[in-house]
Amino acid sequence: MRNKLELTRALLTQLPAGHGHTAEDVIPIWWVNIRNTGGLRLTGLGYQTLKLMDIESWTVDLDPEKFDRNLILLLDRKLQAPYYIEIEKKLARRLIMFSSREAMMATLYGDLKTFLKQLP
Asked: Does position 63 have pLDDT exceeding 80, yes or no?
């Protein structure tokens, strides 16, 4: 099971020494759902931080017409690595994933909802 607090602490070790932040400081600004048991959706600042750390990511294009709240809940419950939903003009356009395995499987399935439903 994923542990947001441990993941946040591990990510903080990637920042330059002397940054002075604790996991408790950055959880509310890096994660959409701040509960430790919540999903791993990144805020804009969290996404930018991971990109500045040169953490590899993969992009999955989204169909804005099929993207709804149920899909957001599935992403929150099922994905085991951080992700970011890129929104343009109030529509979800791309899913940026920080797991090559999850991104590859989502792409192979061709349908994000089908992929997520098969995950434990």
From this structure: yes
3-state SS, residue 26? helix
In DSSP notation, 59-88 reads EEE--TTT--HHHHHHHHHH--S-EEEEEE
Give the CA dihedral 61, 27, 36, 68, nearest 10 degrees.
Answer: -30
Question: Which sequence spans correspond to the domains of the chain?
Answer: 4-118
Task: Please indicate whether residue 81 or residue 111 has the higher confidence score (pLDDT).
Answer: 81
CB atoms within 10 A of CB 11: 18
- Give tens-digit pLDDT for 27-49: 999 999 999 888 999 999 999 99
